[in-house]
Amino acid sequence: MKKLFPSEAMARYAAGGFRRVDGWLTALDARLIRSIGLIQDEQGVAGALGEIGVHHGKLFILMYLMLSRGEKAFAVDIFEQQSLNLDDSGQGDMKAFLRNIKKVAGSAEHVELFQSSSTDLQWRDIEGRIGQKVRLFSIDGGHTAEITYHDMDLANRALLDAGVVILDDYFNAEWPGVSEGAAKFLRRNEGVLAPIAIGENKVLLSRPEHAARYSDALIRGIEGRYFAKETGFFGREVPVFRDPRGLYQRLKQSDFARTHRKHPLAERIKPILRRLLRV
């Protein structure tokens, strides 16, 4: 598939260019999302890319640079209609958003904008304008349980068979409504989405039949020092990725530690190290 933008532009942005755009995105989460895009390219997965809650475009631009010819991008945000910002979870700016896209990509002509609360939209409203299902769908809008549930449902209806949902702030203690709403959706709609990875502030999900393939590809594709562990999460073992900060975390995520984690001596040394390093 021919890309709309040079691969070098994507590489530069994912490697640190995103830091020049206001918003919230860690380097590791950017790496995970870029990796999903590369996996989809290798598998020939084609479709729209979009986000609810784009703010100034920090994550959206990363996805926008992944576009291939014939694919669409869409952005949903209340922007200046801040009376609709019920939980004060971000203050989007349409002018800044479009300016940032043009600065990085040269053009914003491939973006379909929806200046609206996501709760006032159904999938048919978006599909009517973009005309295709979605391969990457980021959810970072309102952070209440009710809005998160609605946005998860919208993403589920929009998603391609091999698509991926990127959910922000599931484990963020400041926004417990996100985990409440997402967990309620996953429990009530068991079998439609399954987690494939946990990043620093993102949870990635896909259709259950594709989950193992995505998880395995991420473990192979992301440098070993970022892979922390696998953990049970909504019925499957899911890889957890962390940027190892501090000596203890670097030791814990080293190849040697992962290889010998179950050794009896390791279990005895671990609390000693924690005390010495004041973890």
Characteristics of this structure?
Rossmann fold, alpha/beta, seven-stranded mixed β-sheet, two-stranded antiparallel ribbon, 9 strands, 2 domains, 279 residues, 11 helices
Descriptive notes:
By secondary structure, the protein is of the alpha/beta class. It has 2 domains: 7-243, Vaccinia Virus protein VP39 (Rossmann fold), CATH 3.40.50.150; 245-279, no CATH class. The protein contains 11 helices and 9 strands. It has helices spanning 7-15, 27-43, 58-64, 94-105, 123-130, 145-158, 176-188, 208-221, 247-252, 255-259, 264-277, and strands at 48-52, 73-77, 111-115, 134-139, 159-168, 194-198, 202-206, 227-233, 236-241. The protein has a 7-stranded mixed sheet, with helices on both faces. It has a two-stranded antiparallel sheet with strand order 8-9. α2 (27-43) crosses α8 and α6 (145-158) packs across α7 (176-188). It starts with 6 loop residues before the first helix and ends with a helix.
Task: Set down the secondary structure blueprint.
Layout: H1 7-15, H2 27-43, E1 48-52, H3 58-64, E2 73-77, H4 94-105, E3 111-115, H5 123-130, E4 134-139, H6 145-158, E5 159-168, H7 176-188, E6 194-198, E7 202-206, H8 208-221, E8 227-233, E9 236-241, H9 247-252, H10 255-259, H11 264-277
Parallel strand pairs: 1-2, 1-4, 2-3, 4-5
Antiparallel strand pairs: 5-7, 6-7, 8-9
